[in-house]
Task: structure prediction
Amino acid sequence: MDIHGLQKLTLLDFPGHTACTVFLAGCDFRCPFCHNADLLDLGTAPAVTDDAALLDFLKKRQGLLDGVVFTGGEPLLSPGLPDLMKRIRELGYLIKLDTNGNHPDRLNAVLEEHLADYVAMDIKNSPERYAETCGVRSVDLGRINGSIRLLMETAPDYEFRTTVVNPLHGEESFAAIGPWIRGAKRYFLQAFTDRDTVPFAGLKTPSKEELQKYADIVRPYVSSVELRGV
Result:
């Protein structure tokens, strides 16, 4: 199984744990603000290593790292992911999964086999602007709803998160997101940061004041609402 990126140490990606971050290529969304746009197309993203080398690396880091984060792209598009998760589990590591929520069946399979200790799912925007924010013609919101329910009902631990981008988000976005994820454990608003790898120009970083205002809109519906990246 190809691995398309490896950050050997992160203190931020897996809350409360030291971890490495594994990047997998392929995604069914085309978000205009994506920081990993070079990983969107499986056929063109270069592999940097493979699963065997990753496992060798993890064997050498036992006792030094707590966990492994799978991100992308959309990791659940990789058919070999569950088997790799099992082998990493056997080494004693915790596992975090990042997902766009568009594959509730695959997410359910991972959760049923207890292969993820923490799942972070993107809530891209309000339902009305979801497809636009994902950069696609349409999104089956039934799939997104299914993943939301799965995390709230069956995940050991989880978070929902939104990367906030001007002009894609406004007060109306969060007035809709709050009730949508009502009863969730944890929600983060992440400030968009422009980089050379972002596929679309003209997108802006919201101010801290804007983010705080949006967070206040969601707080009546979610136990913990925090800002990230400001």
Remarks:
- The longest strand covers residues 158-164.
- The beta strands are 2-3, 5-10, 19-23, 49-50, 67-71, 94-99, 118-122, 158-164, 186-191, 224-228.
- The helical segments are 51-60, 81-90, 104-112, 130-134, 141-154, 171-180, 208-218.
